[in-house]
Amino acid sequence: MILSVCNSPRFSSVPPSQIVPILSDEGCYLASESTMYRVLRQAHQLQHRGRAAKAVRKAKPTSFTATAPNQVWVSDISVPQQAA
Q1: Helices and strands of the chain, counted as H and E runs
Q2: What's the predicted TM-score (pTM) here?
Q3: In which domain of life is the source organism classified (predicted)?
């Protein structure tokens, strides 16, 4: 029942976090949000839904190349160990 509702054309591009309130406003309680996520995950249907683009992680730069003076600064704040 949950899969048929989530896969219906009405909710095909809507995440469970929005399906539950929509159904609740209509007076229909099918399942909790976490149950919908669990059922979709078990059916291998849990993927990005909606119009927004997926979040893309940008890699931090690993090398710094200066093409002019004062572009790359490096500091060292380590304290040298003193003999006891």
Answers
A1: 3, 0
A2: 0.57
A3: Bacteria
